[in-house]
Each structure stands twice: as structure tokens, then as C-alpha cells.
């Protein structure tokens, strides 16, 4: 079945490659033909333009030749007319340059080319700046006036004489003290009560029973693969107090006192080959707690699951952890642990 699918896939791939190659060849052929047509069209346009330019150049050459012939004939005619006109209008006292300027406008012959402009004249020197007048000397400061004379202080008045001191008054006379009152009579003292007889001391009661029942198990550090049984027994005893016991050969925790216990467990997984990961906690042969989750991929396969709860346990009940889905787990001492402790004892 797999071989048939592979052959179909190969055939489809070859067909796709052939179609793409044919499309590429057709596209390139169309592009080359289109470029050839454009080149032929442009060559035809260039030939037409060259023929038109050649025709225009021939017409222009013939027109210039005809114009030169006609101009030469006209020059000869106009030169004769100009000579006759100058003879009639000649003025002896005008300069030759003025005659030329005055009658140049009447000559119908063509004007000669304009001569080049002469070089610009030199710029005159800048005149010197005039001297600035000297500043006159400052005038002398006027004399300072004399300070005025301070006035004389006034005469201090005389102090008046102190009057005589008056006579001292007489001290008052203290009054006489009154006689003391008679003392009060003393109260009557009551009779003293009798002392009670102390009862006998009771016997001390029996010592109370210890309420400390707890155990903490941690993973032994091994990586387990494909276990033969699903009950975990790879535990190391980290803490134990009271009569509670752990059986390493079976993985059971056994309680010896009836009461309410808090039970907890956590497992560390690294299995990416299964769909689910999880673990169960059992009391005797009954499942009481469960944790489960989905495996993301073979690369993201590491995870931990924890659960805990309070349960009433009878004397000699057992607690254990089971793995229902995964086949690989890591008994790391920080990531995998299991335990229980007594909350309330029932006698």
C-alpha cells in the first residue's frame, strides 16, 4: 500500500514538472516572437524616417541653390541703383561714415555680418577717502565745592532730683491656732474564719497517645521504562513518624490508626510516545484520585502532575500510586513524591 502511494506521488510530481516546463517554453517562445516583431517594426520606421530626411535634405539643397542665384542677380541690379542714388544725394560736408549710416536703410541689399564686440573699457580708479577730522581735547573739570559746616550740638538738659522714700508699713499679726479635735473611736474587729481542710490529691492519669502520624516518600532517582507492573515502588523514605509504615517491596503505605488523613502524590513524566500522561492514587484496591493530561509532542514531553485530598482511613488500610498510561517516568527526588499525614484521630 505504501509503495503504491509513493509511485502515485512520484507520477504526480513528474506530471507537474512536465507541465511547468511546457509552460516555461511556451512563455519564452511567445516573448521571443513578440520581441522579433517589435524589432522588425522599429526597423521599418527607421527606414521611412531616413528616406524622409534624405528627401528633405535634397529639397533644401535645391532651394538654397536657387536662392543664391536669385540673390546674386538682385545684388547686381541693386548695386547699379544704389550707385546712381548716391550720386544724386551726395553731400560734400558729410562724413563718409554719416553717409553710410544715413542711406544704409535705403539699400535693399543684404546686410553683412555683425562685427565682434570690442573689449570692455577699464574701470576707473576709486577715489581716496577723505581724512577724518581729529577730535578736540576734553575740557577741564570744574572745581569741587567746599562742604558745609556742621551745626553745634544742643545743650543736654539737667536730670531732676529723686524724691524721698516713704516709710515701711507695719506687719500684720498672725491669728491664734484653734484646739485639736478629739480622736475617733476604733472599729470592732471581726472574728477570723476557720481554715478549710485540703482534700486528698488524685492519682495522675495515663499518658496520652501520640497524635503524630506522617510519612514522606521521594523518588529514588531512577528513570523507569516499560515497568512490569503499574504500581510504583521506586520510593525512598525521606520522613516517617508514628506507627505508619512503608513496604518497599510492594510500594504500599500502611496506616495503623483510624482517622482522617491528608494524602498527596506527584509524578514526573518524560514519555512522548503516548497520547495521555497521568497517575492514580489508590486506597486498598479502590482508585480515589486521578491526574491526566495530553502529551504535546516527542520534544515537549516533560511534565508533572499533582493531586491531594482528605480521606477517612481504617486501621491497616494501604495507600499506593499507579501509572495507567505512560511507560516512562523519572523518579526525581524533587519531581516525584508521595505521602500522608494524620489530621484527626478517631478512637
Automatic annotation (TrEMBL):
A Pfam family assignment: TNF
InterPro entries reported for this sequence: Collagen, TNF_dom, Tumour_necrosis_fac-like_dom
Low complexity bias: start-end ranges: 146-156
Compartments, record wording: Membrane
One GO biological process term: immune response
Keyword annotations from UniProtKB, A to Z: Coiled coil, Collagen, Cytokine, Membrane, Transmembrane, Transmembrane helix
Annotated segments matching region Disordered: 105-213
GO cellular component: collagen trimer; extracellular space; membrane
Database matches in PROSITE patterns: THD_2
GO MF terms, alphabetically ordered: cytokine activity; tumor necrosis factor receptor binding
Domain of life of the native organism: Eukaryota
Organism per entry: Stylophora pistillata (Smooth cauliflower coral)
Residue ranges of every copy of the THD domain listed in the record: 213-343
Stretches assigned to coiled coil: 39-66
Biased composition (Basic residues): 122-131
Alphabetical list of PANTHER family matching this protein: TNF FAMILY PROFILE DOMAIN-CONTAINING PROTEIN (PTHR11471:SF13), TUMOR NECROSIS FACTOR FAMILY MEMBER (PTHR11471)
Record keyword Oxidoreductase present: no
Keyword Transmembrane helix part of the UniProt annotation: yes
Taxon lineage: Eukaryota, Metazoa, Cnidaria, Anthozoa, Hexacorallia
Name of the protein in its database record: Collagen alpha-1(XXIV) chain
Transmembrane segments: 12-33
SUPFAM superfamilies hit by this protein: TNF-like
Family: Belongs to the tumor necrosis factor family.
